[in-house]
Specification:
alpha+beta; 34 strands; Arc Repressor Mutant, subunit A; five-stranded antiparallel sheet; 27% strand; OB fold (Dihydrolipoamide Acetyltransferase, E2P)
Length: 737
């Protein structure tokens, strides 16, 4: 911890003492015995703590710790309906509801200081008011420009930014109505006044090819180009492993190992090896690209990697965390070339227990770059040409399958939750136009790699937890009691009582999923359960992983594309080499909380950007399908309508106003729309026939209407189900661990 951080921590500790009462600047200086020559430094530290929201300065000039003054720092998470929620900086705090009139000019993602006005009661969140804006998040905004006679305005693409941006005539910069633009905010909004800005970039007309994805890149501030100093440093990396680099490492170049990835993957950061030991156990090797050798802490490459946090896999491109000379070059575990790796060797018995492990730096040489498709065809389709091509590896693949099945059985027996959802794969032509949308197929090959990475991540996390040094964990906290109670009431009404709700275990939820598997309630139970759970995130504290039913878990296996993995590689290597002293431990304790917060935020942004590009291309794909009919399944029900998912994963909305055969009332507890007169019910999982009414690229929304002869739906009083054009294939997608 540097001297500035120590001084700030000392001030904050003092203000948090029970005996402390808010003091003025001079009083604080006297009490803390600040030398006269350090007064300016002391004042700057106070101002910095105020800007960070950790302390508050009253109107009378007195300073106090924000929390003790019922003020809290955190982020605003806005809703397109005008209200927002306050997300506390620290873990373990409930979200605070902020009415629209209490935002006081705060925008989505702004860091703010909030005061609680109304304490929360059962089934109702506490309410608060924004007192001060600490940091603005939306210095630039992407949207569609509209020109009027004397001024212009920009309608933000992000619907959570609910108010248009006013553009004075002299700041329009030649923008025309209908163009996608980037606007820089010059005057922030106030309670009754919109923000003002100036056009700094014109991306093209909203209907021009490429403008759509470019808008998403700008909106999420995704940088395709690396800074010059970062590219310079990456370019200096030697693109081959020399004898000097390999010194002190275990030489595993004689061990047979492969990578198994998707066909289009270029950043290959994990390889696996396997053998059967004489005692009948398995020796599994997971070999991870040693990115930390090339990316040193606090150098330009590292600073940029933390700022990006993760690689972003959009529908038509990858925005890498590291420059391609590293991510696709010397760090990538390409076949037939020497590579530096960080290896975890595990001995695993026939029950899936890890009996022993060894973690070390290595030098490796991959035998083959395998694809999920080819491994699947070998194991499940017995393709002869692949047997001939990979003759020396076939037994290894069958051994991998054997171990993966054991590991999965063990994981499921301890209660890990396995959701049965689907994800989409969008196929684009050379011009970026979507030509096909289909379900992404998960095969035994995917499951092999999944199980091997899971057991490796658990092994690493457990070992370093017991060592007791600062670490980065992947945590998934237990669900909130209130949400579980609502979920339990919901499943009880469906005929599936959930016992032991006061001490919920993931195994109980997995048991419920097994009970509803193959029934008409499967989709609704899975969907509502997922909504009732917390979201996995990174943390410097080990709170366990509820969804995996794991006491210890981390992300170790993807340092090319995830910053947390890179950080723990450094920590592990420092410890293994004996370089972890008390000063370093203190420094990590201070830094890791901030690093994990940043990485969790970057992951969330990446997921939203990826989802935005997929949704955009799905809408584009359906534009020429307007007027066509499709069979679908009700995937979600809200007060304003129901979402229908087609067999290819495309989802559209049937608005409640378009249900003209009755007046429908939303039943929140049953997640259904029920006709007031007919008692016809639309529930999640019900089958319906719809017509595509509208596909709007601006809103990225597809609107459906029910086909008139669609009077037989699951969950209504009707008995005859709709015949589907083709059977829906159930594929498994793993909820992100």
């Amino acid at each position: 911890m540097d001297i500035i951080a120590r001084r700030k921590a000392k001030i904050l500790r003092f203000m948090k003492e029970d005996s402390y009462r808010p003091l003025k600047f001079q009083e604080l200086a006297i009490v803390l015995d600040v030398p006269q020559e350090d007064i300016d430094i002391f004042e700057s530290l106070l101002l910095e703590l105020v800007r960070e929201g950790k302390i508050h300065k009253t109107r009378k000039g007195r300073y106090g710790a924000s929390g003790r003054m019922s003020l809290y720092s955190g982020k605003i998470q806005a809703n397109e309906r005008g209200y927002a929620f306050f997300i506390h900086d620290e873990e373990g705090f409930k979200d605070i509801f902020i009415p629209g009139e209490m935002l006081n000019g705060a925008m989505h993602n702004d860091r703010v200081l909030v005061r609680i006005n109304t304490a929360g009661v059962r089934e109702k969140r506490p309410e608060g008011e924004v007192i001060r804006i600490l940091e603005r998040a939306n210095k630039t905004i992407v949207g569609t420009f509209e020109l009027s006679r004397h001024f212009g305005f920009v309608i933000p693409d992000d619907k959570k930014l609910v108010r248009d941006i006013f553009i004075p005539k002299e700041e329009i910069k030649g923008a025309k109505t209908g163009q996608k633009v980037v606007v820089e905010i010059t005057l922030w909004p106030e309670k009754r006044r919109n923000a003002e800005g100036r056009i700094i970039e014109i991306l093209g007309h909203k209907d021009e090819p490429g403008a759509d994805i470019l808008s998403i890149l700008r909106a999420f501030k995704l940088k395709e180009v690396f800074p010059g100093e970062v590219l310079k440093q990456a370019g200096e990396a030697v693109q081959e492993v020399t004898g000097e680099m390999a010194e002190g490492r275990k030489d595993l170049r004689n061990i047979t190992m492969v990578t198994i990835d998707g066909e289009d993957a270029k950043d290959l950061d994990d390889a696996v090896s396997i053998q059967k030991l004489e005692n009948g156990n398995y020796r599994l090797g997971v070999h991870i690209a040693d990115v930390s050798y090339y990316v040193k802490e606090n150098e330009p490459l590292d600073i940029e990697a933390l700022e990006r946090g993760t690689s972003v896999y959009l529908v038509d491109r990858v925005i890498p965390m590291l420059p391609k000379s590293l991510s696709n070059g010397i760090c990538s575990l390409n076949p037939g070339v020497d590579r530096l790796a960080f290896t975890v060797m595990m001995e695993i018995d026939h029950s899936g227990r890890v009996l022993d492990n060894e973690i070390f730096e290595s030098v490796i040489n991959i035998n083959e770059r395998m694809t999920y498709t080819d491994v699947y065809k070998i194991l499940e389709k017995n393709e002869e040409y692949l047997f001939k091509r990979y003759d020396g590896l076939i037994d290894k693949f069958y051994l991998m399958k054997e171990l993966a099945v054991i590991l999965r059985k063990k994981r499921m027996s301890r209660g890990a939750i396995d959701f049965d959802f689907d994800e989409a794969k969008v196929i684009l032509d050379d011009e970026g136009k979507p030509v096909e949308v289909k379900r992404y197929e998960i095969t035994i090959a995917n499951k092999i790699i999944e199980e091997f990475m899971l057991v490796c991540n658990e092994t690493v996390a457990e070992q370093f937890y017991w060592i007791g040094i600062p670490f980065v964990y992947r945590v998934h906290e237990e669900p909130e009691q209130e949400k579980m109670e609502k979920f339990s009431e919901f499943t009880y009404n469906l005929g599936y009582p959930l016992k032991g709700i006061n001490s919920i275990h993931p195994g109980m939820l997995q048991e419920l999923l097994e009970k509803v598997k193959g029934t008409k309630e499967e989709m609704i139970v899975s969907t509502v359960m997922l909504r009732s759970l917390q979201k996995a995130r990174y943390s410097h504290l080990n709170d366990g992983h509820f969804g995996l039913a794991a006491r210890f878990y981390c992300h170790f296996t993807s340092p090319i594309r995830r910053y947390p993995d890179l950080v723990i590689h450094r920590i592990m290597k420092e410890y293994l080499k004996g370089d972890m002293d008390e000063d370093r431990i203190d420094e990590l304790k201070t830094r890791l909380a901030e690093i994990t917060r940043i990485c969790s935020e970057r992951e969330k942004d990446a997921e939203e950007a990826e989802r935005a590009t997929v949704d955009l291309k799905k809408v584009e794909f359906m534009r020429d399908k307007v007027g066509e009919e499709f069979d679908g399944v009700i995937s979600s029900v809200t007060s304003f309508g129901m979402f229908i998912e087609l067999d290819n994963t495309i989802e559209g909305l049937v608005r409640v106003g378009d249900l003209d055969d009755d007046y429908y009332i939303y039943n929140e507890k049953q997640y259904s729309l029920i006709g007031e007169r007919t008692k016809k019910a639309y529930r999640i999982g019900g089958q319906v026939k719809v017509l595509v009414a509208r596909a709007d690229l601006d809103t990225r929304q597809i609107d459906f209407v029910l086909v008139k002869d669609n009077d037989k739906i699951n969950g209504s009083k009707s008995s005859k189900p709709v015949r589907k054009a083709r059977p829906k294939q159930k594929r498994k997608r793993k909820v992100k661990a």
